[in-house]
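Each record in this resource describes a single protein on a pair of labelled lines. An example record follows, reproduced without changes.
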Amino acid sequence: MKPPSSHHVTSLPHPTGRHRHDSSERWKSPVLPDRIQNLDQRDPELIDHIRNYWIIPPQPGRINLNPATYKKNKRYDFSEQGQVQAVLEMLDDRRDGFFVECGAADGQRNSNSLYLELFMNWTGLLIEPDPNFFAELLSKNRHAYSINTCLSPTSKPLVANFTTAGISGGISDLIPNGQRKRYNMDQRTPIKVQCFPLYSILEALRVSHVDYFSLDIEGAEVDVLETFPHANVTFDVISVEKRLIDDELGTAKKEKRIIDLLSPYGYKLIKRLKFDIMLQRRSFQ
């Protein structure tokens, strides 16, 4: 994949929220009032709270990439398995799209959205629960919305134990056993993280259509997809991590669950990557 000769990024309008990010200060997540913790994903009070206090709008100025990470990246498109190239093939090199990347890490390493932002004039939403990764993400000055939260595996917010382990970190109770053993996660002390339903976050942005949805959250993918109201939001292309580390049979079962779950909503398996599967909405094809 060769880069276009030039690009221009246009940010979406800023939300009406009262919280603003100062790049000179470390981000600190707001406190969610107890009464909101029990609200359903469609509740207007929950959605307004996320909009006003949690979502950081796209930042002005130049994107600030890490040169060392840039040089070490095996792919020009930044993605781990060539997801970006597959997306552009499936969407006929679409420009001006909107992405949602769940598990955005530091906003550069193995990013499934950065190339789209830099060279195809996309914007979107970056979701990352690890506070250290999120601080690095903010330092990149990405021209996309961002939020420091994990995705709730239920239809309500919750505070979860989150085991940090670089890009392999996730909600402690949902991390596959093989992954826990490989990275000695039982020896790590979890941190508490706030989780929101994906639907509530998208509603906070007033987004009902997404061109590319990347879901890689280390074990919670099926739970998130099961509780998401797919009739209310459409995705043209979805990539979902299918891999269960050290468990080939489990990986096959997980892949089938994802396909069976999304097929009734018009999604068809198009491509298998090393760790992900990619699906496309039939009505778009």
In short: Residues 1-20 have pLDDT under 50 and may be disordered.
